[in-house]
Amino acid sequence: MNRFIKIEEVFKILKSIKSVFVHIRSSLKLILMVIISAILIIGIISVFYKPTYAVTLNGEFIGYTNDKNELQKRINEQMKGIETENIAFVDIQVLPEYSLCFVKRDSVDSTEEIFEKVKNSGTTYYKYYAIMLKDEEKYYVSTKEEAESIIDTLKEKNSNNIKDISYTLIYDTAEKEFTEQDTIVTALYEKKPTYTYSASSSYTIASAKIELGIDLIKPVQSGYTITSRFGSRSSGMHTGLDIAAPNGTPIYAAASGTVVASGWSNTGYGYYIIISHGNGVQTLYGHCSALYVTEGQYVTQGEHIAAVGTTGNSTGYHLHLEIRINGTRVNPQYYLY
Ligand SMILES: [Zn+2]
Fold first, then answer.
1. pLDDT by residue (tens digit) across 252-303?
2. Which residues lie at CB < 5 A from ion ligand 1?
3. Which residues does 319 contact at the CB level (< 8 Å), separation at least 6?
4. Which residues are CB-contacts of 164 (< 8 A; sequence separation ≥ 6)?
């Protein structure tokens, strides 16, 4: 081994080191050139183009979106349903596909249209509450709270048809028009008929004619004798009009209405019928020999309801006819005979 290195050798080594440096420098230059030109190209492209997502549905191009995540989020929400819009869910069979691409800067973002197209490609199921009368859907409301509130209000108002009113949750592809709570309550509310069943001895007597608001017909045909008129007697108060007629003579309903009593009276009327004509007006037919209608039955004016008899506190065949307004007896002869 040499004890020294020749000077030429040193130069040789130095030269080769230099050439390596030159080589590195030129490589660096090249890399730098590549980077700069890449930046330039991207710069030029990004002046005219932008990265965006092309959206396809069923293989068909439906638009570009700059915000894929937001769009997909909305679609997912739609599929889950939106409480405030009464959309239960949207049955979307095919989901859109996204592919990243460069489009010209002035290309329109059509996220909204894409959303509508995807939504319309599915079936929308709406959710709402139907207010039912018997088995019929009468009105629609948006929330369960509204439906319950309507039922509660009708209960508080003691609506006569409360047993027939309910609500039910409905899912349907058809959108329904909603009705205001107050409107529904007003439309469904049914006043309870004011029945006065009592044939009791406590009663009030009207001293003057009260308008009935309905026209009455004679329950037994004219030509029969009036044997006792309305008013005070030595025996007490006569609360009706007595019309004598042969046993079995037909008794007709003085006006249409609902039979609220039909049976035996313990207070002297014998077999009797009370018909309620609405607005608190009732007619009573006493001392009958036969009854042809039953409680709860609706009868029309002139319907054959009973036969003349002499049952109860009676001394001969006659009809005892009473007219009551909200429980107050009025003189039948203000209206008939
Ligand atoms: Zn009488």
1. 999 999 999 999 998 889 999 999 999 899 999 999 999 999 999 999 999 9
2. 240, 242, 320
3. 219, 220, 242, 243, 245, 249, 251, 285, 286, 287, 288, 308
4. 133, 134
Same domain (yes/no): 253, 280: yes
State the distance from the centre of ligand 1 to the C-alpha of 212, rounded, in angstroms: 21
Q: How far is the CA of 14 from the centre of ligand 1 (A)?
A: 148
pTM: predicted TM-score of the whole model, two decimal places:
0.43
Residues 90 and 212 in one domain: no
Give residue 199's pLDDT. Answer: 43
Q: Extract the runs of DSSP E, i.e. beta strands, from 26-154.
A: 49-57, 60-65, 87-91, 97-104, 123-133, 136-141
Q: Are residues 234 and 292 in the same domain?
A: yes
What is the residue range of 152's domain? 126-188
Residues 277 and 239 in one domain: yes
The answer to whether position 134 is within a domain reads: yes
